[in-house]
Design goal:
single chain, 178 residues, mainly alpha, Serine Threonine Protein Phosphatase 5, Tetratricopeptide repeat
């Protein structure tokens, strides 16, 4: 940020820190959209999620599916366990790596989440969702250039109109704040 004429040097440093904190807060609020919400008084409670399948899956795809159900319930530790088992059965399985990255993102393990999203993008470069999630991880680490690049890559590949709207909103917000 250029220094303003007549402004003390410490004031510009403070403005830079405030600007960075505002951007970080915006990113963390967006990441928070993924977290399950508890019931609040006066609102209709969300319907109870369907019970997990009774038989334990024995293949990687089944474990990823069960992990997805657990993620929806906010059972992140259990989901990570399923995803780790899926990766033991089928090393490098992109859906397991992507879901694990999403859990790690929700648990604020941004660098580990990035590693999973990077792997998914290298393995399946035309698959759009890992680009969106990697953008969130980059933004949480205040790497906005990389985050913008990933959102543009996501927009070029995705058919999900709701998620594309979210990506455009983030790009617009980050442009306005920079």
């Amino acid at each position: 940020m250029p220094a303003r004429a007549g402004a003390p040097e410490h004031e510009d440093g403070l403005l830079n820190r405030v600007w960075i904190l505002l951007l970080a807060g915006t990113v963390l609020l967006f990441v928070d959209l993924y977290r399950p919400r508890p019931h609040r008084g006066g609102e209709e409670p969300a319907p109870a999620p369907a019970p997990l399948s009774e038989s334990a899956p024995t293949d990687a795809a089944g474990l990823v599916e069960r992990a997805h159900e657990r993620i929806e319930r906010g059972e992140y530790v259990e989901a990570l366990s399923d995803l780790q088992r899926a990766l033991e059965l089928r090393p490098g399985f992109p859906p397991a790596r992507h879901h694990r990255g999403q859990v790690l993102l929700r648990l604020d393990h941004f660098d580990q989440a990035l590693a999973d999203f990077d792997y998914c993008i290298d393995a399946e470069p035309e698959n759009a969702p890992p680009y969106f999630d990697r953008a969130l991880a980059h933004a949480a680490l205040l790497r906005f250039i990389e985050a913008r690049s990933d959102l543009h890559a996501f927009l070029a590949r995705s058919d999900d109109e709701d998620r594309k709207r979210q990506a455009r909103e983030l790009l617009s917000k980050w442009k306005a704040e920079s």
